[in-house]
Amino acid sequence: MTGLVWQSARQLTGTIRTGKLSAAELMAAAYDQIERLNPKVNAIVNLLPRDEALAAAHEQDQTRARGEALGALAGLPLAVKDLEDAQGFPTTFGFRPFAEAVAKADGEVAARMRQAGAIVIGKTNAPEFGLGSNTFNALFGATRNPYDLERTAGGSSGGAAVALATGMLAIADGSDMGGSLRNPAGFCNVVGFRPSIGRVPDQRAFGWLARLSTLGPMARNVGDAALLLSVQAGYCATDPLSRVEPDPGFSGALECDPRTLRIAFSPDLGGLPVQAEVRERISAAAAVFADLGADVENACPNLDGAMAVFQVQRAATLAALGKQLDQQVPDWRRHAKDTALWNIDKGSSLTADELIEAEIERTQIYRRAAGFFERYDILLCPAAQVAPFPIGNEWVREINGQPMTTYIDWMAVCCAITVISAPAISVPGGFTPDGLPVGLQIVGASGQDLKVLKVARLFEQATGHGKVRPPILEE
Question: What is the pTM of this model?
């Protein structure tokens, strides 16, 4: 049964639909893995009791036995990121005052995943309010990296990345403002895809101005991430930026001829500080594409000002969070971490001029990037500027001797890409000499999600880095 947890989501759903595998068998195998490994890594929280999860799986088996059609995610165990609502489970945001905040209904994306046959068994751990690329909080504690338990799993979708890397889940949802899908995927040797804004519905406070965040898929391979995206994506009338367009075919084959590709490669995204071992792996990834026959050039879009725009628009989003907290938990400041307080206060102090200037600057940066992607199909760069760092360090204070002023700055390689609303995926890019995973970030023009997935699949097939399992599995 152990081998079941390492099969792809596409394999598993296919065998469940044919009846060769029952959803209950898969669920039992998943719980065996969870019970063995989750106490070590702390990836899944508020886990459904085993008997209730098995009962839900049996219900799906009965549905198949009656001859009723099963969805694209038939029988797959799923733990929803603990920033999103899943009916019957608390949505805690990793925040003590929300420990018992049980959701009365699914969020839009959770509902889509359930309707496609996924069985929700719990939540995946996230930093408090999803802030910071190190998954820890005062409610549930820290999530540990399975490649080195003394290292961070990244964040904010850290619990999801670890659950995938350890075989507890085959697919996982996540969200990404400044790298929260891409960073933990890179740190844990799995796949995290940030779709174009509007591809996946998002119904949080900032639906229009200063939209930075999006939900998206995670998986152990690109094909499974694309399968999950096919369920998550699609028009939503209540999301003002939702894309109205035909299904691009995410669930189909991801074929790509490398000889047709013109690829830009930047190991530091135009001059950001990047650890030498990370830079080496990204340079090696560019060489892989060149060997496959792609036209690879050292080039980077002009992203000047992107980090300043990100800081302003992120803070504005968090000011809205602060207003919600004022209404829900009058003494919330007593419970919140320092970085959350700083960022919320920064947002509350913004002027109208600062907001307008950031929006104008973001538009100019977007237009420059659009021109860049008229010349290149894809941009390659790191998914993080550092390798996984010690779990006791809340955030990276310096890179190559260059101080990081805030808890966000060390993730500029992802934050700057966020500003141009581009689809971006982190795929396993190899390992440091110490055996720590490095993620390759593959970026495309806004709307070119399918192209990004195809190029990522090409690299995945050429290298096989994602097949390297974490040492914790052998303990």
Answer: 0.98
Residue type at 433 in one-letter notation = P
User: In angstroms, rounded to a whole number, what is the distance separating the alpha carbons of residues 32 and 34?
Assistant: 6
Question: Is the distance from CB of 131 to CB of 138 less than 8 angstroms?
Answer: no
Quick check: is 426 catalytic?
no
Q: Cβ distance 462 to 287 under 8 Å? A: no
In 3D space, the residue among 121, 129, 193, 200 whose CA is nearest the CA of residue 163 turns out to be 121
Residue 174, φ and ψ in degrees, nearest 5 = -155, -175
Asked if 157 contacts 218 with a C-beta cutoff of 8 angstroms, the reply is yes
Contact 137, 339 (CB under 8 A): no
The two beta strands, 119-124 and 44-45, are antiparallel
Q: Which residue carries 């799993």 as its tokens? A: 153
Per residue in 271-292, pLDDT (tens digit) is 999 999 999 999 999 999 999 9
Q: Are 420 and 307 in contact (CB under 8 A)?
A: no
Distance between first and last Cα of the chain: 18
Phi-psi region of 130 (alpha: psi -120 to 50; beta: other; left: phi over 0): left
The active-site residue, picked from 180, 230, 242, 421, is: 180
Integer Cα distance of 148 and 167 in angstroms? 16
Task: Locate the domains of the chain by residue range.
Answer: 2-474
Chain centroid to CA 197: how far? 14
451 is catalytic: no
Residues 6+ apart with CB under 8 A from 237: none
Task: Kindly name the residue from 133, 156, 175, 266 that is annotated as catalytic.
Answer: 156
| CB contact at 8 A, 227 and 172 | no
Asked whether the beta carbons of 351 and 411 are under 8 A apart, the reply is no
Find out whether 174 and 215 touch, Cβ atoms under 8 Å: yes
Angle separating helix axes 9-18 and 222-232, nearest 10 degrees: 70
- Its CATH architecture, for the domain 2-474, is Alpha-Beta Complex (3.90)
Region label for 160, one of left (φ > 0), alpha (ψ between -120 and 50) or beta (otherwise): alpha
- DSSP 8-state assignment for residue 327: H
pLDDT in tens, 161-218: 999 999 999 999 999 999 999 999 999 999 999 999 999 998 776 677 789 999 999 9
Strands (DSSP E) contained in 257-305 are: 262-265, 295-298
Q: Catalytic: 81?
A: yes
CB of 159 within 8 A of CB of 80?
Answer: no
- Taking the C-alpha atoms of residue 144 and residue 136, their distance in angstroms, rounded to an integer, is 9
Catalytic-labelled residue, pool 81, 123, 337, 451: 81
